[in-house]
Amino acid sequence: MIDWPTFLAGLIASLIVALVTFVLGVKSGKNQADRQRLQEMYKSLLVHFQDLKERLDSYPRRWDQYEEHRVGWEIHYLPTVKKMEHDGSSVYIKQKLFSEALELERDVLEFGYDVERYYDGIFDAIASDDDLFKAPIDTSTDRRGRNCRRIKADDGQSYTNGRSSRLFYFLQPGIGKHIEEALGSGGYLTFHDDRNPYEHELTINPGSYDDLSIFAQRIESLSRKSGLYDELNSQRTSLKSRIDALTKKLTRRAKEPVPFWETFSGAFIDVFRP
Q: Where are the beta strands (DSSP E) in the chain?
């Protein structure tokens, strides 16, 4: 005689197991088909943020260094994350992770413009210090109509040897020592930003100051005079920490775009999704 309760319970259990196996198989197969594309997308994000972090210690990235997108008379720029949002490929990236990446990218690129405001402050401080050296400010415009600020401390001599250096060094400890070592070699020293053409350029000739050691110390003091010095260095440290945290997540996703538990939960969400 058939034990119907036991038979039905076994039948239902078998159907449930079969359904679970089928759903997981379908979901796993789809994820496997998408795996390579997702890996490439996460890798591109990883490389992008590694570049942004590296440039925070030399020439921070800005919006205008990326692809232009014109909407009427307006110009928008499309760095890696913003471009994914623009072309719709962001739908394949985990939403919470993508939102974090989009916000961080924006903050890093805005930092680049804050650094240029700091350059303006440094030039104001140097030009207004009458006892430092006499240096006329040559103001001109480039093809984009932006002001190009130049300060040249000229002793009237011609020098064939010199050194070109990053203006960003003013935001780092030891700028005075850097200046002293560079000018001690006898040639001129030029600091500039990373724009083409330069929008900030400071040239110092060896005979444009009295005592090199005192001069270098005064330049370092002026570099810290602006309130932006501490603010930007604190912000830079914070941005690098945020990038480190994000790149760890991106690295895991580049290795395994869809972890098992996401496959498992996603399979059943898909079953009941309208």
A: 67-71, 74-78, 137-141, 147-153, 162-166, 188-192, 200-204
